[in-house]
Amino acid sequence: KPSENNTRRYNGEPDSTERNETSCVILEQKLKPDLEIERVLEQYSLHPRKEEKKKEERHSEKKFFETIKTIEKASSKTKELEFGGRIGTFMLIFFLPATVLYLLLMCKQDDPSLMNFPLPLPALESLWEARVFGVFLLWFFLQALFYLLPIGKVVEGLPLSNGRKLQYRINGFYAFILTAAAIGALLYFQFELHYLYDHFMQFAVSAAAFSMVLSIFLYIRSLKAPEEELAPGGNSGYFVYDFFTGHELNPRIGSFDLKYFCELRPGLIGWVVINLAMLLAEMKIHNQSMPSLSMILVNSFQLLYVVDALWNEEAILTTMDITHDGFGFMLAFGDLVWVPFVYSLQAFYLVGHPTAVSWPVAAAIIILNCIGYYIFRSANSQKNNFRRNPADPKLAYLKFIPTATGKGLLVTGWWGFVRHPNYLGDIIMALAWSLPCGFNHILPYFYVIYFICLLVHREARDEHHCKQKYGVAWERYCQRVPYRIFPYIY
Predict the structure, then answer these.
(1) Is the sign of the CA dihedral 274, 277, 283, 284 positive or negative?
(2) Over the stretch 36-53, which tens digit does the pLDDT of each residue have?
(3) Is 150 in contact with 287 (CB distance < 8 Å)?
(4) Distance between CA 219 and CA 224 in Å, rounded?
(5) How far, in Å, CA of 234 to CA of 226, rounded?
(6) With contact defined as beta carbons under 8 Å apart, do 196 and 277 qualify?
(7) CA-wise closest residue to 104 among 331, 356, 337, 452
(8) Helix H or strand E segment including 257
């Protein structure tokens, strides 16, 4: 996504916006008498100066969190504007759709070089077709129907500012299975799935138009939302900024959570369907009895990523997308347009620009993707297991720094290697997805370049929120783990 990549919405970053008010209160009650006694005894203490310094740090950390909590309760307005503020978000509303169209037009060129500028623009009437828009609507509402099915467990999200917890039905993987069955039935009855490839640009325009209409609807309905239901990052009072970042945190129609539904369903599952359509289009256009090895690698790698996201769907409930960011144009466009139409760029590129890959090279790329996936999945699992039950005997080998929120910051395992090991794994996988496209053009590497920029930006947001939340403990953590994403580099 342009700002909070929805698969990475599920990336499992440190829970930078999660609040545990109960833990704070309990900890403060426990520490209060001890701290007062310590202050009296300090005058007659014979302990080394080093221990006195530790006590001062612990006391200052407690005061820091008391200050933060007071500020949070006193002001619900968004003070710090991101993404370039009002001007930056206004430009992004136009720049992001233009970027998608530019990338897709480039892939259609015989020579998709960046020097091939300006591009021949298609006629405006050729970008819109009512039938294509109807197919997109059918897809969106089919996924909504799967979301409403009473299958899968129901879990609670993190507590909101008013202490309330929303319920979410975890059935994304079931929706994927039902979608696969539906696509299989269409192929059995000889439906031409490469229709997606033939009208790819029109589908992108239809998705962009729908995301804009959805964003307008979301902003209008947010004007009537109670103050406590507004997003902490999208309540600036500036129309353009709040429209872009999302004014309401969890917009719902009854029990149907619009943001949670769009995060993993229409766009992410649609990404897999688009990849399959590109695979079939390659076989038809080049008269192949089977897809190329490059296309198989791209489809397989990205299928694994999507299935992993849906299988671990519950992990998304602790990400910034759900707990902090409102549902506005940023996430609506990212979920419905950026993810399916930009993340499938490698497969789209290979249809018009076939690239031969030898088996030794393919084996090396597979190993690289496996390394990235192992780092990504094991880091996320390690963090999620520790968050769920820090007292688990299986996690006894992990060391952590306690914080005034009642949570701990891991300083061993993957999270003691770099501060965001899941981002490192993500970037390694992104590179493996691009390598099957060869080195003739930089276009198929747009994804990995963009993804590095996205994760560096997200890491900066994480750092800011974690410093506010954990205070002195976060400073100690940064001293213990100096590298952010790339070991010995950054």
Answers:
(1) negative
(2) 444 433 443 444 444 444
(3) no
(4) 9
(5) 14
(6) yes
(7) 337
(8) strand 256-257
